[in-house]
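$ ./design --mode recover --in tokens.txt
reading tokens...
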């Protein structure tokens, strides 16, 4: 299924690839450096691996998601990652659970036997949820200009261009073995880009090259904040086929995530002609005093109309995310009120998917509220990590 991708990767290598690399399937043992500045806003630079190597306590990941326009119960998210087990917030495949870290010790005490992973979450019309993680043996990436291509062999990959992305899944494990059950994740998500890329302190028509949140913090770039998404997947025997909206972002750090993060919430919504995204990140051990509780929270917001950024920025305290419970005709609805410059919306948590004892939660649901000077309705997908 990935033949076109493999072919393109080979072609890119022969021509003018700015980079063409093989990611290591094993963890590096030693300190690594992370890049929190991008040399350009070319998609290949935004998507490029951001760590010099990947060791046990670092991670670099690429996420794609989509939610159905007709029914916000239906969604999918895929994360391709290269990462070690110390402080890793996502669930590893069942047969590698023995690489759980020794608490508080990022320098040993685990048997890390892999560095490449693919994670898939899906939710269905009837509220059913699915999630799976696979270990990948080899991965290659190449990039040039706005083209970025990645293959996680046995997991899937993506091909990005000026127009958007094609993401493919190619997990086809028909037999059980090695402590793993059969698993089938096949098919494609096609994205047609609506909005330009956004980063922490980007403002309309001025992309900020600084991708770090906080001094030694977390790297984040919203490579494609909103896109028209067309999904056709076989999710372990269930057909998931829908049209909706999707996005692609990237997160990385040279520090263990769960130990360096107090909370990270990021989400996005599509309402009418509007694309909205928000992020709020609070690192652990705030270096600032308790007298200014917002001082150590980093926020970012983005509102576009018809693909054109209208309001965006990172002013302290400009993003507010409050849990709500509202009585509606259809009964009691739980959700969040998200207030950012240029938009005040309510997002319902129609479907909730929780893992790691509630420390990682994903939601999708309906969204409605005021964007600019219009009342709009649409769909939202968002997630939170909390430690
Ligand atoms: C991984 O790299 C980070 C950042 O350089 C460093 O702090 C950490 O000690 C390294 N971990 C190992 C196991 O070498
Ligand atoms: C971390 O674990 C390694 C291996 O088990 C051990 O040698 C080392 O002393 C531990 N370091 C700390 C700070 O606990
Ligand atoms: C969404 O799923 C819930 C079950 O979790 C179900 O009650 C509801 O009817 C579904 N909504 C739609 C629009 O299908
Ligand atoms: C999945 O694997 C089975 C068994 O090897 C094979 O028959 C089938 O064609 C594969 N499907 C795809 C889409 O590669
Ligand atoms: C886990 O499964 C993979 C195949 O997907 C295999 O290569 C690996 O050796 C297994 N690991 C363990 C610890 O069994
Ligand atoms: C996928 O389906 C297989 C049966 O074909 C089953 O054994 C396995 O548990 C399923 N995996 C998940 C994550 O649901
Ligand atoms: C863009 O933002 C940078 C700071 O992030 C500033 O130095 C520069 O003047 C801005 N450019 C324009 C055209 O507003």
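writing sequence...
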């Amino acid at each position: 299924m990935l033949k076109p991708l493999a072919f393109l990767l080979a072609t890119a290598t022969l021509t003018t690839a700015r980079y063409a690399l093989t990611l290591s399937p094993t963890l590096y043992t030693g300190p690594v450096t992370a890049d929190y500045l991008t040399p350009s806003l070319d998609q290949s630079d935004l998507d490029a691996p951001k760590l010099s190597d990947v060791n046990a306590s670092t991670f670099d990941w690429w996420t794609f998601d989509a939610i159905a326009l007709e029914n916000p119960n239906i969604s999918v998210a895929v994360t391709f990652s290269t990462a070690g087990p110390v402080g890793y917030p996502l669930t590893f495949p069942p047969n590698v659970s023995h690489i759980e870290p020794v608490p508080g010790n990022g320098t040993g005490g685990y048997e890390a036997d892999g560095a490449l992973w693919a994670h898939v979450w899906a939710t269905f019309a009837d509220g059913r949820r699915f999630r799976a993680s696979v270990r990948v043996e080899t991965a290659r990436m190449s990039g040039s200009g706005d083209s970025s291509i990645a293959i996680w062999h046995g997991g899937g990959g993506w091909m990005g261009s000026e127009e958007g992305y094609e993401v493919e899944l190619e997990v086809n494990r028909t037999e059980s073995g090695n402590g793993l059950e059969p698993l089938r994740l096949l098919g494609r998500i096609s994205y047609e880009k609506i909005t330009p890329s956004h980063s922490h302190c980007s403002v309309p028509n001025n992309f900020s090259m600084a991708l770090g949140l906080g001094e030694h913090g977390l790297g984040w770039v919203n490579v494609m904040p909103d896109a028209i998404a067309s999904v056709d997947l076989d999710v372990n025997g269930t057909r998931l086929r829908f049209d909706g909206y999707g996005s692609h972002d990237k997160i990385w750090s040279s520090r263990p995530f769960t130990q360096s993060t107090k909370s990270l919430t990021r989400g996005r919504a599509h309402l009418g002609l509007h694309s909205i995204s928000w992020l709020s990140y609070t690192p652990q051990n705030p270096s600032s005093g308790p007298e200014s509780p917002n001082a150590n929270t980093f926020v970012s917001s983005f509102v576009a109309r018809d693909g054109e950024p209208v309001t965006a920025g990172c002013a302290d305290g400009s993003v507010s995310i409050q849990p709500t419970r509202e009585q509606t005709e259809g009964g009691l609805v739980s959700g969040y009120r998200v207030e950012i410059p240029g938009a005040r919306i309510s997002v319902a948590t129609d479907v909730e998917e929780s893992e790691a004892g509630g420390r990682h939660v994903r939601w999708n649901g309906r969204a409605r509220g005021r964007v600019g000077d219009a009342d709009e309705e649409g769909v939202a997908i968002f997630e939170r990590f909390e430690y």
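exit 0
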